[in-house]
Design goal:
This protein has helices spanning 5-17, 112-115, 268-282, 291-307, 327-339, 343-356, 384-398, 404-425, 448-467, 471-491, 525-536, 559-571, 575-587, 612-625; strands at residues 45-46, 51-55, 61-68, 73-83, 89-95, 106-111, 119-130, 136-144, 151-156, 166-170, 176-180, 183-184, 186-188, 204-205, 215-218, 223-226, 235-236, 243-244, 250-252, 261-263, 557-558, 598-599, 605-606. The longest helix has 22 residues, at 404-425. Strands 1, 2, 4, 7, 9, 12, 13 and 14 form an eight-stranded antiparallel beta sheet that branches. It has a six-stranded antiparallel beta sheet with strand order 6-5-8-3-10-11. The protein is of the alpha+beta class and 637 residues long. The protein contains 14 helices and 23 strands.
Length: 637
């Protein structure tokens, strides 16, 4: 994470709790007495902001900071503010006399709503004022916000000998202006290093902090998350993981390093990284029918690449609770890399899956990224036995023909163990046992989120066995796939592919796993998908993973679950319906263009961004809609 997050969190805690007027006074600044003469100490800024010093809500409160000009013109000022108010305005003035608004040299007003509403951080105000070097001026600030709204100018209570005076105005409390030993956080014409987004956070809306991460920097061996406070006003340099900051400078993760640096735009090391990233994208396929879709796909692919470790471990996202390799997420990434022309990345993931398979043919729910084992006792999940062979099959379809047979032989022991375990798990009805799936919650009976992937995996395994001449394996797994297909048709299909067979049954977005490119669509699947959509669609427009007794995802839509439907409808040839789901997912990207894990009830990205699983699903959906039909493992005979 980049620096400054802890201080920003403290600022947000202050703004949400409100600013008590007695302890943090302020004013409209037009009446009252001035307590002492201005200091001539030539200071044009200080960055400490651990305390919410002065409230600045009109018309009772305001604040001002003395400074001594060190040049003939002021073009920009920065203040560290926190606001509990979502609407209103903040006005700054450059004054020659503290109480003289009419004689201000420059005035600038910013709208809180345009800043994103309630939040905290550095706010920069463009100004244009001629100044006299060595003369004393006053940087004045006041806000107009709704009744009850708290807004404060931050700084430090630590005395700074000889520093310029900070002025507090509270008409009710002081009767006018009052000088303080405390020092407001401000900069006049900040240097690039002093501007927000480098070592200090720009003003970030509190709503943006519902996502723990906003983007990724990467050099191929190390990855660093971009915190929401450092994504404000920033943009990636096109086709790269180099970040262009509000100051115009670049932040990137140099080769061989584990911490990012800020460099001038055009820096040779950063430029080499940009060129390498662009060449990597150009070596494959960036799907999409429009420039906007191709841009989204490129960003998703670069983020997926940043989540891939050199040993083939694929992190779900780059935040502590997500920095593990799930077989499910990894399998989708392998398929997406394979179909976009990045075979080396796909094969690396599949080899990691082979190394981390358990001796009984199953996988842990997730492993540490060094491959040393699980981070905890989370229950293993049988659906991995379907997803991994399916991913191998998808890789095989696009792998170079002169090497794929040899590489498949390398992976085949993993496939045999996985498929044999899947086949052995089927009961007399042809169904697997109850097991946690992508919900990572136990169920009392078999769920569709396990049954459908196992069917895809058994079909994939049988086909791959046949290609290698392993006829006994192919026959055994094909027979198991037929039994499982019949069991799903007999027990899940009549109910519309619910989550489980328990009564009452809830709906599950995993019904989409019965569609291509996972499984050949059975009769009646489109109607089942329509009814599942109606049951799971939230007011924010996205889909929740499922419903039913004892399970609620609240107002949060999952971008992965919504993307399941985009991919399924694309596989069914229903591009208009696919576009509806995909368009919603793409509309929820954050300001850096990253895909979040969830979207809250207000329609804002939350949890983490980017989520690698959603990136894979978006890439696959765009491929399917771009005229590159994705293959589906066949059910033979």
């Amino acid at each position: 994470m980049l620096p400054g997050s802890a201080l920003l969190s403290a600022a947000l805690a202050t703004l949400l709790l409100g600013v008590p007027s007695a302890s943090v006074p302020g004013s409209d600044g037009e009446t009252g007495s001035v307590g002492r003469t201005a200091s001539a100490f030539p200071r044009t800024g200080q960055g400490r902001h651990e305390s919410a010093l002065f409230g600045i809500r009109a018309d009772n409160n305001a604040a001002a900071q003395e400074f001594t000009a060190d040049g003939p013109r002021v073009t920009r000022v920065g203040l560290f503010l926190s606001s509990g108010a979502a609407t209103g305005t903040v006005t700054v003035q450059l004054r020659t006399r503290l109480g003289d608004a009419a004689g201000a040299l420059a005035t600038r007003t910013l709208d809180l709503a345009r800043l994103g509403g309630a939040g905290a951080g550095w706010v920069e105000f463009p100004l244009d004022a001629r100044t006299v070097p060595g003369a004393t001026y006053y940087l004045f600030a006041q806000a107009s916000v709704p009744a009850g709204g708290a807004i404060a100018w931050h700084g430090t209570r630590t005395p700074a000998g000889g520093a310029p005076v900070s002025w507090n105005y509270d008409r009710a409390y002081w009767g006018g202006w009052e000088p303080y030993e405390a020092r407001l956080a401000f900069y006049v014409d900040p240097t690039p290093a002093e501007r927000c987004g480098e070592t200090e956070p720009c003003y970030v809306p509190a709503s943006a902090l519902s996502a723990r991460t906003s983007g990724l920097l990467s050099n191929g061996t190390s990855t660093e998350a971009v915190a929401p406070a450092f994504a404000v006003g920033a943009r990636y340099v096109d086709g790269s993981n180099v970040l262009r900051l509000p100051s115009g400078r670049w932040r990137y993760l140099p080769r061989g390093e584990s911490a990012s640096v800020v460099v001038p735009a055009g820096d040779a090391g950063a430029q080499r990284q940009i060129t390498e990233s662009r060449n990597w994208l150009a070596a494959g396929i960036t799907p999409g029918r429009t420039a906007a879709e191709r841009s989204a796909a490129g960003r998703a692919l670069l983020s997926m690449r940043a989540l891939l470790r050199p040993n083939g471990a694929y992190a779900a996202a780059w935040a502590p609770a997500w920095q593990y390799a799930w077989p499910r997420d990894s399998s989708f990434a392998a398929a997406a890399f394979a179909h976009t022309g990045h075979e080396a990345e796909a094969l690396a993931i599949l080899r990691y899956s082979a190394r981390t398979q358990r001796t009984d043919g199953t996988w842990e729910a997730r492993t540490k990224l060094d491959g040393s084992g699980p981070p905890d006792a989370r229950a293993w999940q049988l659906d991995a036995n379907g997803w991994v062979p399916w991913a191998v099959w998808q890789w095989y379809q696009k792998a170079p023909q002169d090497t794929r047979a040899v590489r498949l032989q390398e992976l085949y022991p993993m496939i045999r163990r996985a498929a044999d375990r899947s086949a052995a798990s089927l009961d007399g009805r042809g169904l697997p046992p109850a097991s946690p799936d992508y919900w990572e919650l136990p169920t009392g009976t078999v769920n569709i989120g396990t049954a459908a992937p196992l069917l895809a995996g058994l079909n994939a395994s049988a086909d791959l066995a046949g290609r290698l001449g392993e006829t006994d394996d192919a026959a055994r797994w094909n027979a198991a796939a037929k039994r499982l297909s019949a069991g799903i048709a007999a027990h899940f299909a009549p109910l519309g592919y619910p989550r489980t067979l328990d009564a009452p049954q809830g709906r599950d977005s995993a019904a989409a796993f019965m569609a291509p490119p996972f499984n050949a669509a059975p009769a009646g699947l489109p109607a089942a998908l329509d009814s599942t959509e109606r049951a799971l669609k939230l007011p924010n427009g996205g889909l929740t993973p499922g419903n039913g007794p004892g399970h609620s995802w609240g107002a949060y839509a999952w971008t992965a679950s919504t993307s399941f439907f985009a991919l399924a409808w694309a596989g069914l040839g229903r591009s208009a319906k696919a576009d509806g789901f995909l368009g919603w997912v793409l509309s929820k990207r954050n300001t850096l263009g990253e895909l979040p894990e969830t979207v809250n009830g207000s329609g804002r990205p939350s949890a983490v961004a980017p989520l690698g699983w959603t990136g894979s699903l978006v890439a696959l959906s765009l491929l399917a809609l771009d005229g590159r039909a994705l293959p589906t493992p066949p059910l033979r005979g």
